[in-house]
Amino acid sequence: MYKIFYLIGAGDYGKQLKVFLKKNKIVSSIQFVDDLLNLNVNNFLKKKNKLFFNITISKPIIRESIYLKLNKKNFVYKSLIFPNKNIYSNKIGNGCILEPNILVSNDVSLGQGNFVFFGTIIAHNVTVGSFCNIGCNVVISGNTKIGNKVMIGANTFISDNLVICDNTMITPGSVVLKSIKKPGIYQNNLMIKPL
Predict the structure, then answer these.
(1) How far is 126 from 94, CA to CA, in rounded Å?
(2) Are 79 and 91 contacting, i.e. CB atoms less than 8 angstroms apart?
(3) For residue 163, which phi and psi values (nearest 5 degrees)?
(4) Taking a C-beta distance cutoff of 8 angstroms, is the pair 126, 160 a contact?
(5) 3-class DSSP state for residue 195?
(6) How many domains in the chain?
(7) Which region holds residue 64: left if phi is over 0, alpha if psi is between -120 and 50, else beta?
(8) Nearby residues of 162 by Cβ (< 8 Å), 6 or more positions away
(9) Pair (72, 88) in one structural domain
(10) What span, in angstroms and rounded, lies between the C-alpha atoms of 174 and 192?
């Protein structure tokens, strides 16, 4: 248990996460830090003692930029992993949030700062880069490689042996049957907007 755990981002997901953390007794004392709401930002940045935090902002590029600013000795980017009997990988980077009722199979590698939401299944030998969002009830089949800053919408199916490049957004409910090689917003395998 942490004396105080800091959540950076007091938006809807941060507030939801606070409830989950307290109910599951993962963290007893939580403080929000949010520059838009002027919540403790200056005091937080001046602290010299060891601080444990996670970033609850949904946009991967913003999450990464905040992490890079806080990458100091006394700031410890901690993963929040809810009680779950179906996590078989120990290759989980710092700052990940793994919600309840997910399956992370053997030989899965998750980079830092990833969100894996409720009901998701990640099959064997999958590699996920850093600062990705994997929505609720997503299925990622085996031997697939997901790049950095990828957002996968809820209820999406990604077939096996694929590569999804960095900076890609896949819309909810998509079925991805071939690799995605150019950054953009995709519905199924069709690019609807380049990034």
Answers:
(1) 18
(2) no
(3) -125, 125
(4) no
(5) coil
(6) 2
(7) alpha
(8) 141, 144, 145, 176, 177, 178, 179, 180
(9) no
(10) 12
Query: What are the structure tokens assigned to 39, written together?
Result: 């919540």
Sequence-ordered list of residues with C-beta below 8 angstroms from that of 9, at least 6 positions apart, any chain: 32, 33, 34, 55, 56, 57
pLDDT averaged over the chain? Answer: 92
Dihedral pair phi/psi, residue 62, rounded to 5°: -70, -40
CA 26 from centre of chain: 17
CB 168 within 8 A of CB 180: yes
Please, are residues 120 and 83 in contact by the beta-carbon 8 Å criterion? no
Interstrand relation of 51-55 and 5-8 (parallel, antiparallel or unpaired): parallel
Confirm if 126 and 146 have CB atoms less than 8 A apart: yes
Question: The whole model's pTM is what?
Answer: 0.93
Integer Cα distance of 169 and 153 in angstroms: 8
E strand or H helix at 176, and its extent?
A: strand 175-176
Please indicate, yes or no, whether residues 63 and 103 belong to a single structural domain of this protein. no
Give me the residue label for tokens 């830092």.
112
Question: Tokens standing for 106?
Answer: 């053997």
Q: Encode pLDDT of 146-187 as tens digits.
A: 999 999 999 999 999 999 999 999 999 999 999 999 999 999
> Do 125 and 59 belong together in one domain?
no
Q: What would the DSSP string read from start to end of 46-64?
A: H--S-EEEEE--S-HHHHH
Note whether 191 and 179 are within 8 A (CB): no
Domain presence at residue 195: no
